[in-house]
Amino acid sequence: MRGKTQRMDVKKQVNSEVIREQWTRTYNTSGKPDWSHLFPYYHEDILFQDSIQQVKGKAAFEEVCNRLAVRCRELHMNILSIAQTDHVIFMQWEMTMMFKKFPSSTLYGCTKLTLNEELLIIEQRDYYDLWGDIFDNIPRFGKIYRKFMRRKFG
Predict the structure, then answer these.
(1) Do 124 and 112 meet the contact criterion of CB atoms below 8 Å apart?
(2) What is the value of pTM for the model shown?
(3) Confidence tier at 10 by pLDDT (50, 70, 90)
(4) Which DSSP string corresponds to 75-102?
(5) For the residues 102-117, what does the mean pLDDT come to?
(6) What's CA 56's distance to the chain center, in Å?
(7) Residues near 101 by Cβ (< 8 Å), separated by ≥ 6?
(8) Residue range of the domain that includes 67
(9) The total number of structural domains that make up the chain
(10) Are 138 and 102 in contact (CB under 8 A)?
(11) Residue 102: which CATH number?
(12) Are 92 and 15 in contact (CB under 8 A)?
């Protein structure tokens, strides 16, 4: 019965306001990012996908988060906007990653969170331009990359 009560508490909390507060708290502290307070909001069968990977299951998702924490000295996330309709939450963000050996990079993106009937996150899809945002931070190379992209694709 105790586990059921704990899950019901999470149900009451999963909404766009709590997501904004929890996600911002994850990144905006000095030192390593920590996602442990977010994991209770995820369903065991979470499907996570971004520009470089797709993983299924909470354990695999936690591994993705932990790998990113190891690579970065610090992360800062600013949620620019957030909206919720029924069981879907969209947020627009900018995330600055401070690496150990490389200059910091800011990524601009959006996340779509899909909630199941229990109001746990069952799907997370992150959208961002990984290479463009990273290359923009490299002197001269960013301009060459953008010129190439316009010539070939735009």
Answers:
(1) yes
(2) 0.79
(3) very low
(4) EEEEEEEEEEETTEEEEEEEEEEEESSS
(5) 88
(6) 16
(7) none
(8) 2-153
(9) 1
(10) no
(11) 3.10.450.50
(12) no
